[in-house]
Fold each of these.
Amino acid sequence: MRSAQPVALLPRESCDTQRVSEQLVADLGRRMVSGDESALEQIYAQWSSLVYTIALRSVRNPDDAADITQAVFVSAWRSRATFDPDAGPISAWLVGITRRRIADHYRAPAKNREFATDQSVEAPTLVEDSESVSVVDRVVLADEISRLGPPTDQVIRLAFYSDMTHSQIAEHLDVPLGTVKTQIRRGLSKMRARLEVTDAAL
Amino acid sequence: MQHCDPEDLALLALGETPDGVDAASHVEHCELCQAEVRELSRVVTIGRSVGIDDQLVAPPASVWAGIKAELAKDAPEIAGESAAAPASNVIPMPARKRRSWLPTAVAAVMCLVLGGVVGGVIVKSNEGGTPGSPVIVASAALEPVPGGPDPQTTGVAKLELVDGEYVLRVDASGLRTPDGFYEVWMMDPENAGLIAVGSFNANQASATFPVPAGLPITSFNSVDISDEPFDGDPGHSKVSVLRGTLTA
Ligand SMILES: [Zn+2]
C-alpha cells in the first residue's frame, strides 16, 4: 500500500504525526483548563471507557460504576484548574481522580451511623488482587494496547496471548521478522511509559 | 561494552531467546540490560494478566447526559436571559443548554493555529446548534485515487462527535458499481496502520460508521474507500477508489 501515503496532503515534512498527536492531546488539557467545555466532551470521548472500566472492575456494579464515572468527569471539570499539562497526560490525571472517587464510594457507607468510621479502611478491590497486579494497571494496559493501533496492537496481542514466538508471528502475519521485533519493542516501550505516567499521578 | 539490542531485550522480556546468541549471556552480567529486561518483564506480566473482564467497556449513554445536566447547574445564569422570552419560545431549552457546549473562541483560534496540520481532536463548529446534532470534529474531501477505477466521483468524510462517541460519516454519491463491494477504512499513514470501519453501498449516498472507542484518531486521519473482492480476505485489496485526509 505504498500509495497509502498521502504525503502531498501533509503541509510540512517536519510534521511528525506522533508529535502532533501528543500536542493535540496536550491542547485538549489546556483548552479544558481555559474553560472550553467542548474540550471536556472530547476528553470524555477518549477516556470515558477507561474510567468506567476501572470503576466497574473495582466496584463490580454497573450502576455504581456509572455514578463514579459521572462523578469523575464532573470533578475533572470543576477541578480543571489543578490539571498541570507538564506533570503528566490527561489520562493519568483522570485515573488519579477515578481512584479517589472509588475510594469515596467505599467511604460513603461510613457516614451511616450504624457503621464505624474505620469502614473506610476497607477499599478492598482497588488494591492488589491475588496475582498482585492492580486492577488499574491491568485496565490501563488494556487501554494502551487498544491505542497502539494496528499493526502494533495485533503483534502485541499475539506475543502476549498466543504461544507463538516472534518468528512464528512474522510468518503468521506475513511480515518481515525485523518488523515484528520493532513492533514488539515499540509496543512494550509505549506500555511501560503509560504505566509510569499513571503511577506518577497517584 | 556493547549492550544488547533493545529489540532483543524486549524478546527476552517475553521469555524468548533472541537469535543473537550472546544476548542472554551478556544480560546475565550487565546490570543495565538486566534492569531494562526487568522493567519490560513487568509490562509483559501485567499485560498477560489482562483478562476478558479488563477489556474496555463504554459507559451507558446516560452518563454523559448526567454529566451535562450536573454541569449545567454550575453555569451562571446569564442576566436577562429569561427576559428574552420570545426567543426562548422558539428555541427549546435543551438547545440553549446545548449551545453552552459549543466550541468557544479558543477552539476557533486553535483551528487557525493547527488547522490543516492533521485530522485532529479539534472541534470546528456546530452550525445547526440543534439539540443532539453532531459536532463535526474534522472533515476530508475524498478525491479519486490516481489510477483508481473511478476517476470521476468525489465524496466527503466527516468525523463527528455524537453524545461523546466518534462516528465517521461518508457522503459519496454516483460511485460506479464496484467489482466486489466498497469498504471504508481509516488509515494511519505514518505507521501503515489500517482498520476497516464498514462497507458502503454504491447506491447509497451517505452512511455513518461507528469509530472503535480508543482509536487514536489523530494518527488514523486518512479515509480510504476501496473496491474489495468477495474473497473472504479481510485485508485491503489495494484497489483504492477515493481517499482524503481528515483535517480540523
Ligand atoms: Zn548491557
Note: Chain B touches chain A through 86 residues (CB under 8 Å).
Amino acid sequence: MSSGTLYDKVWNFHQVKELPGGSTQLFVGLHLIHEVTSPQAFSALNEKNLEVKFPNLTVATVDHIVPTLNQQRPFNDPLAEEMLSTLERNCKSHGIKFHGIGSNSQGVVHVMAPELGLTQPGMTVACGDSHTSTHGAFGAIAFGIGTSQVRDVLASQSLAMKKLKVRRIWIDGSLQKGVYTKDLILHIIRLLGVKGGVGFAYEFAGPAIERLSMEGRMTICNMAIEGGARCGYINPDETTFEYLKGREFSPKGQEWDKALNWWKSLVSDSEAKFDDEIQLDGSSIEPTVTWGITPGQGISIKEKIPNPEILPKNEQQIAKDACKYMNLEPDQPIEGTPIDVCFIGSCTNGRLSDLQEASKVVKGHRVATGIRAFVVPGSQKVAKEAKRKGIDKIFLTAGFEWREPGCSMCLAMNPDKLEGRQISASSSNRNFKGRQGSANGRTLLMSPAMVAAAAINGKVTDVRKLLQE
Amino acid sequence: MKKEFPKGEINVIRGRSLVIKGDDIDTDRIIPARFLKCVSFSALGEQVFADDRKELAGSHPFDLEQNKGANILVVNDNFGCGSSREHAPQALMRWGIRLIIGESFAEIFFGNCLALGIPCMTATKQEVSKLQNLVNQNPNQIWDFNLQDLSIYNQKESFKLNIEKGAYEMLYSGKWDATSQLLDAEERINNTVKNLPYLNNFT
Ligand code: SF4
C-alpha cells in the first residue's frame, strides 16, 4: 500500500468517514459541471427535495454541445438549446456560478477551470466527465464521475469511493524537438495498455516532467484515463506556482504565502512508498500516431502498422478489428497515410501553446487541396490570447478554419462531424469507432503540430521534416 | 394514478404482477440507446421496452390493459445484463415497477435497482415458472410481498424468495439510498470542511 505520496496526503485531508463495504466517503473540494451529465442529477435532486449543499464549490460551464460556427441563441439544434437552457435554469435556482456563452470565461471545462485558477494543488476535483484527470497536473486528485455521483456531490459535496493504488511513472531525459507531451502520453499508453492503469492513480515524475509547462502537464494527466488510470497527477513545483500566481481565483496577498507552504507540504516524500514504479527515457520517444481504434494502438511515425499475427495473443483480435475498420494494411508505414479532415482542439490539446506550436508548422504553407482543416480553441481566453498574438491569422492565411471555443469534433455532439468513411488527423483523445460523429468515421490521434503537418501535406507526416525547413 | 417512488424501509409491497418471459434480457432492450440523450429521467417510463413494444403493436405485457397499474415484475434468468446504464431501472421504476422477481439478475443492474429501493428477489427456475403461470392465468390477483419472511403470497399460494444479506439489510433498514447515507454524515462533512486549508483562507 502506498504511503507518503501526494495522493495519500490529499486523500487523508478529504476523508469524511469509512462506509460499509470498504469505500470511503470522500469530500469534493471543487465540483465542475456541464450541460450533458448534470441535468438528470439536478432532476434527481429535485425529486428528493434536496438542496445543493455547497453551491459555492460547484462551478458550471457549457462545452460539449455548443456549435462552433454560430453561437447565436437560440441554437439551431433544439436539443442542444434545451440542454443549455436547462443548465442555466439549474444554476440560477441553486445559486451556482455559470460561465456561459459570451462570458469571456466559457470554454471546455478542463481548459477554463485551470485558466481561472479554480484548480489548485491539494484539492479533490470531480466532474461528470472522464477527462477530469486533467486537473491532476496541479497536484490535485481529480477524477471523472457518473450521473448518480454528480447527484451525490450536489447533495452532500461528497461521494463514496475506493482508494486507488499509486504507480509512479518516472521519465528521464527530455523530449526532442518536434516531440510533444501528446507523444509522451500516447507512448506510455502504448507500453502499459489501455487497461494497464485500472485501479491505479498515476504519479508522473522525473526530469522530463519537471521541465514541462503546465499546459504540457495537463495534456499528460488528461489522457491518464485513456490508460485506465482514473487519476493522474504531478507534484506541484515552481512551474505550478508561477502559473497560478495572479489568476482570478488564486489566493492573494498573505494567503498566497500560506497557500505556498501548504502546497509544498503535499509533495510526495522522498521516501514515499508506491505500489508500483516504472521508469522511461523521454529522449528516445518519437512523434507518435495511433493507427487503430483504441488510444493504446499507437506507433512512432517511423514504424509500420503492426501485423496482428506477430502481436501478443491478447492483442491480436482487436488489432485485426482495427485494421479492418481503419482500412489500413499491416506492414505498411503509417507515414504517408492520406487523410481527409484535420482537427486541432479539445481538452487534451486546445490550449494556447498547442495552437502556437501548430502555427509554427503552418506558417508559410497552405493546407493541401481537398483537406478540411479547422482549429477550435479550448476556451474564450485561449481564443482571445491567440488572436492577440496573431495566431488565428496564420491559420486563416494557410487555409484553416478558425472556430469558436467548444468540444467540437472531439466527440461530435455538436454539428462538427466526420462524414461517412472520412479519416481525420486529430489532436483529441479518443479514436473509438464512430467517436467523431460518423458511425464508420476514422480517427488518427497525434500532437497538434503533427496535425498541422498532416494538413499541409494531406497525409500523415513527420513534423520534424517541416520544422527543419 | 401516479405512484410514489420508493422511500425509507422497504418491507412490504402489495399489488398486481406482470410477466416478461425470456433469459438474458439486456438493458438495451429495457431502454434503447437513443433515449439516453435526455435532460431528465422523467419521460423514461413511457419508453421502457420501446422497441419490443413497437414490434408487438399493443400486445406487449407493458401495453396490455389488464397490466396497467401492476407493480411487481416477474422475469427469468440474467435479467438486466449488458450496458451499465442507470436509465434501465429508472425506466422500470417510472413505469410503476417496485419489485422484481427472477431466476437471477446482472450484478450492476441489481445494484442500480437497489440504489432506487427496488428489491430484485430470486427464486428457483421451477418456482419462477410456476409463479409466471399463475400471474398470467389471473392478472387481477393481488400479491403480498414480505421482505422479512422472504416470500410473496396470496390466499392460496406462497413462494420462497432470496436476496443477498447486504442488500436485505440495506432495504430492511431503509439505508439503500446512497445519497441519504452520505447526508447522514453531515456533522463529519462540516468537520472535514473546517480542516481543509483551502476552504479556510489557508490558516
Ligand atoms: S474536449 Fe472531448 S474529452 Fe474533453 S471534455 Fe470535451 S468531449 Fe470530453
Note: The interface with chain A takes residues 5, 37-42, 86, 115, 166, 178-179, 181-183, 185, 188-189, 192-193, 195-199, 201-203 of chain B (CB under 8 Å).
Amino acid sequence: MDFFGFFKGKKDSSKNAAKERLQLVLIHDRANVSPEFLEMLKGEILEVLSRYVEINHEEFDIRLTRAKSEDGSREVPALVANIPISKMKRPEDFSADRQRECI
Amino acid sequence: MGEVIVITSGKGGVGKTTTSANVGTALSLIGKKVVLIDTDIGLRNLDVVLGLENRIVYDVVDVVEKKCRPNQAMIKDKRFDGLYLIPAAQTRDKNAVTPEQMRELCDSLKNEFDYVIIDCPAGIEQGFKNAISGASKALVVTTPEVSAVRDADRIIGLLEANEIRDIKLIVNRLRVDMVKKGDMMNVDDILDILAVGLIGVVPDDEDIITSTNRGEPAVTNEKSKAGAAYRNIAKRITGEDVPIMDLSGDNAFVAAIKKIFGVKQ
Ligand SMILES: Nc1ncnc2c1ncn2[C@@H]1O[C@H](COP(=O)(O)OP(=O)(O)O)[C@@H](O)[C@H]1O
Ligand SMILES: [Mg+2]
C-alpha cells in the first residue's frame, strides 16, 4: 500500500493541491505534534529496531497522516513509517547487543 | 435579551471588518437594533468602513475605563435607524482592555440591543481574547486560501475551548471563475475540512472596494452581489431560512446547501 502516493493528488489542479496540503497541515495542527516530537520518536524507534535489523537511515521516514477510523465514519490521525531494512541481524548478533546494553 | 456575536478569523485581511459593517447595517435595515463594537484597538477601521469616522468623541477604552457611559461613546448612524458604533481607541494598545471588562460591557449592551456585533482583531492574543469574552456566538470568516482556512481551523478550536459552541462559517471573496477552472477551493472543499456549518458565501466583488471608498456599506447597493450575500447572512442570523446563493451555476452549491440544511450534520 502506497501511503504517501495516496496524498499526491488525484487531479493536477491547484485547488486539489491546496486541499490536500491543508488536510495534512491540519492533522499536525490539530494533533499538536511538533517536528521535534517526530524527531524524538524517530530516534527512539531507530534505536530499538537497530538491535534487530540494519536500517537504511537515509530513507527512514516517519510522518503523521490521516486515515479512516475502524468503522470508516471519520478521519483519524495515523502514524505512518517507511523503514527500509538493508539486512536482518542474526539472533546471536542481537543477543550480543542486548548483553552489551545490560552491562 | 439580545445576542452577542463575534466576527473573527485568525488571519488578517480576510474581511472581518467588511463583514461586521455589512452584517450590522443589513440587520438594522430589517428593523433590528444593532451595536457594533470595534475591538481592533490601535488599528481602528470599522468607523471608516461605515463612514462614521468624523463623529468619534469617545471610544471603547473610555467606556471600559468608565471615563464615559456606553451611550456617550456610541455613534448613532443617521442613515440607518437602529445602527450604532462603539469605535476602537486608536492610540492605546490591546492591553488597555481586559476580557472581564468586555464581558461586562457586552452583558449590559445586550439588554438594550437585539445584536451586539464585535469586530475582532487578527491574531489569537489579547485582542482576540477580549473580543470573544462577551460573545455567545461566532461568525468565522475565511477566504478560499490555504493560510486563511488553516487559521480558521485554529480559531474554531480556540472558540470551542472557550465554550463558544455556536460557530458559523462565512466564505468570503469566492471567485467563481477560478473555482470553475479548478484553481480555487470551492465551498464544499472548505466545508469538508472545517467542522462547522456555513452561514454564507460572499463573492469577491469590486463593489466592496467602491462602497468602502465612500463609507457606504455594500448592502445598501441593490446591484451588488456581495451586498446581496451579506443581506442574506443577516436574514439567516435572525433565523430566516434563506438558501445559499448559487454563485457558480453548478452542483457544488446545491450539495453545500444540502449539507447545511439537514442532509449531513
Ligand atoms: N468580498 C470582497 N470582495 C472584494 N474585496 C473585499 C471583500 N471582502 C473584503 N475585501 C477587501 O479586503 C480587504 C480586507 O478586508 P477587511 O474587512 O479590512 O479585513 P479584516 O478586517 O479581516 O482585516 C479590504 O480592502 C476589503 O475592501
Ligand atoms: Mg479588521
Note: The pocket of magnesium ion (ligand 2) is lined by residues B 16-17, 40, 45 (CB under 6 Å).
Amino acid sequence: MIKFTKKGIYCIPGKFYLDPWLPVEYAIISHGHADHARWGMKHYLCHTHTKNILKHRISDDILVETLGYNEPKTINGVRVSFHPAGHIIGSAQIRLEHKGKVVVFTGDYKVKDDYITTPFESVKCHEFITESTFGLPIYKWLPEKVLQQQLHDWILQNKANNRTSVLFGYSLGKAQRIMKLVEGLDEILVHNAIYHSNNAIESSGIVLPKTTRLDGYFNKADVQNKIIIMPPGLLGSKMLTRVPNAATAICSGWMQVRGNRRWRGVDAGFAVSDHADWDGLLQAVKESEAEKVYVTHGSQATFTKYLNKIGIKAQEVITEYGDNELEAAEAKKEAIT
Amino acid sequence: MKRFSELISAIEITNKTNAKIEALVQYFTHAADKDKLWLIALFTGKRPPRPVKSSLMKQWCAELTELPEWLFLESYSTVGDLGETIALLLPQPTHHIEKSLDAWMQELIQLKSKTESEKKAYVLNAWSGLNVQERLLFNKLIGGSFRIGVSKKTLVNALAKLTNMDANQLMHSIIGNWDINSITFDELLLGTHINYDNSKPYPFCLAYALEKELNQLGDVNDWQVEYKWDGIRGQIVKRNGELFIWSRGEELVTQQFPELVEVFETWQYNFVIDGEIIAIKDSSVLLFNDLQKRLNRKNISKKLLEEVPVGFYAYDILEFENKDIREKSLVERRKKLSLIFKQNTAKNIQLSETVAVTNWNALHEIRENSRSVNSEGLMLKQKHSPYHTGRKKGDWWKWKVDPLTIDAVMIYAQKGSGRRSSKYTDYTFAVKKDDGLVTVAKAYSGLTDAEITEISRWVNKNAIEKFGPVRTVKAELVFEIAFEGIALSNRHKSGVALRFPRIKRWRKDKTINDIDTIESVKDLIYANSNNNEL
Ligand SMILES: [Zn+2]
Ligand SMILES: [Zn+2]
C-alpha cells in the first residue's frame, strides 16, 4: 500500500503523499513543522488545528482541507483518519486503511502528556512508520511535573538575583510548551515570531497561556526580571544583548547530554522535548502491535537494529525529515523577522 | 554532595573563566573544611587511586539496564564520556542519599580494598540513591576526569580572589606535598607546608609579533637573533637546594619533567632561568604534537620517557645567586647565562643558540629556513633591553614563518569530547596518491561553530558506516590545511608528518579534483629544507 519515493511517502491506491518534501498533487500533512509541511502542494489535508499554522507558515492562498481526530475520510478507496500524536498542537498520526490492511505514519510524536497538546493515542496497525529522533536509551525525559519544578526554581532564582530569564525554543510547538510550563510565574514576553505562531494557533479557537508581544525596541525596564521566550536563532543576537542581566536557557531534548548544554554557551539547558524518548518510542511501537516497523529520521540505524534484535521486524527508511536543517533555516528566518 | 553538585553544574555550563571562578569562590565560602580540601585535591591530580575498574562499572550498568553491549557503546559514542553514559542509562533512583563530599571520598578510599561483590553492592546502592547529575559526579569521584575546564590556574585564581593572597604562592601551596588528614584549609592556603621563598617565579617577558620592516629596527648589531622554539615557555627556579619548574601559564609543572629536574638539581649556582621546554631526541627538536603527549600526565611511563625525551633551551636569566638581575641589559644577562652553561653541561639542556647576522637582508633567508630545524621562526631581542614584566612593545619581537598550506579532502569524522560531544569536530584528511587517497593529517581546530554544525549535519547524511564513534564519509569536502612544518616520516603511511596541522578554511569552492597529491606535498619538504638529507 505504501511506497517510499524520492518525493516522499506515497500511498499507491490512494494516490496521495504523506508529508512529501517535493511538490505533489495531494499531500496529507502530519503537523505544521517545516520539515513535514512544505510549500508547493496543490492540495493539503491536515488536522483542523494545523490549517491556520500552514497558512501562516506557507502562504495564505494554499488549498487546505481539514479533518478532526478520529474523523475518517475516504480517498480513492483508502480510509484516512487522524489520531493525536501529542507532538505539537494539531499534530496527528495518519492512519490509512485499505482492503483490511492498516498503515500508521506517526509524523513526529511524544507519548507523555504536556497539558497543552491533545495527548498521544496509540493506534493498532499492520505497518507502523515511526520517527526516531531520540532513539537511544540515554534519552529519558523527566516527568512534566519535575521539569516544571526545575524551570520554576531556575526562574525564581534568576529573579532573586535580579536577572531576566530568557528561554529558547522553536516558535511553533516548543514555545507554547514553555509558555504552559512557566504559566503563572510572571509576565511572559514572547518574540515576534512566537507571537505570530500563537496567533495562528489561537485563530483555531485554542486558548494559550497569556503572553505579551516583545517589541523589537523594548524598554529595558519593561523586561527586567521577567520571562522572555525567543526562537533559538536569536542566541547570540543583538536583541539578546539588549536584555538586561539575561540568564539564558535552551529547552531541547538534546540538552540531556552535558556536552550539548555547554556547546551553545548558555547558562542552563533543560531537556524539554516534543519527541518521544527511548521508552516512549518502544512503547508506541509495541502498542501498535505492527508486524513491520519502518523507522524514519533520527537514530534510525540504531533503533532499527534494536527492534530487530528484540524480535520486531524493522527497516530503516531514508527521508528528508529531521528537524535540524529546516529548523535552523526557519530559526534564521525568524531571527530577522 | 548537593553543594558540590551545584558547583559542578555552575562550572560546566559556562565557558567564561570568570563565572567559573565566581562559582568556586562561592563554594569555598560556604563548604565544609574537608570538602574544600577534597575539591582542591580532585582538581590538582591528588585524588586517591581508583577503587573500582571502569570495566566493572560498565558491566554492572549493562546488567541493570539489560542493554546489549553494542547499544551501550553506541550510547557511549554519542555522549563521549563513560561516567555520564552510565549515569544516563541507569534506571530512575528509588531513594535519595545525601552525604558530604568528604564522606563519599572516605568511603571510596575504604572501598579500594574490599571484595568485588562488596564493591558491587556499594556502587549499586549509590546509583539507586542518586539522580542523574549526582550519579555522574559519583562516577567521576571513583575515577575519570571531570572535563569541566577547571585548570589548576583557575582554582588558584579563585583562591586568590577569596583570600587576596599571591596566586603563585597559592599555586605552590596546593601543588606542594600535603595530606588531607593532617592539614586544615587555612593551613594549606597559608602554606605552612612549603617555603614559598624558594619557589617564587617572576612574570614572563613576552614578545609581540613583528609589525614593521627590519631596517626600521635600527642597527642590526644592536639585536640578538635566536630561533623561536615551539614548546612550552618555562622558568627554572633553583634556590637553596630546591628546584621548581613554572610554565608560562603560571602552573607548577616540576613533576612533569623528571629528566630536567634530575639534571638541574646537580647544577652549580642558584638561578632563575627562562627558556623553552621542548621534546628533543638525538639532538633534534621533535614536533610539538610529540611534546603534547608528555603534558598533564599524572604518571609518566618509562616507555614515554624514552619515546619523547624532554629538553630545555635557555633564553635568559632573571636571577643569579639570589640576586634579581632583570634590570641588567640582555648582553650582561647573557654573559651570566653563558657562565652557568660553561660550568654545567647536559646533552638535553642547551643555551639557546644565537644567529650571527651582519645585515638585515640575510635574515629573510634564515627565517624562511627555520622550519628545517623544526623552529617556528625567529626572535629579535634588543641587546640593551632589560627583562620586562609581561608584554611590552619594542624590545622583543617574534617573527614567525608563514604556515604552509595544502588542500585535502575529509575522509573520516569523529565526535568531539566534552563541550562538543554532539558534533563531529575531529577530522582526518587525505590527499591523492596514485588512483586513491592517503591520510596526511588529523585536525580539529580552525572552524566556526556554525561550520561545525553544518559539517556535522553533512556527516550524518554522508556517513558510509553508521555505528561507532568514527564515521567514514564520502570524500567530498575539501579543506585548506595549514601547518608549521613538514618532514619525511616512516611512522606515517603517507611517508610525511605535518607539524601542528589545523584547518585554515573550508574550501567550498573546491572539489576532490582540486586537492593536492602526495608528490606535491612532499615537494614542500624539499622546498623548506637546507639540506636534502631529510
Ligand atoms: Zn515536528
Ligand atoms: Zn520530524
Note: Residues 45 and 212 of chain A are 32 Å apart (CA to CA).
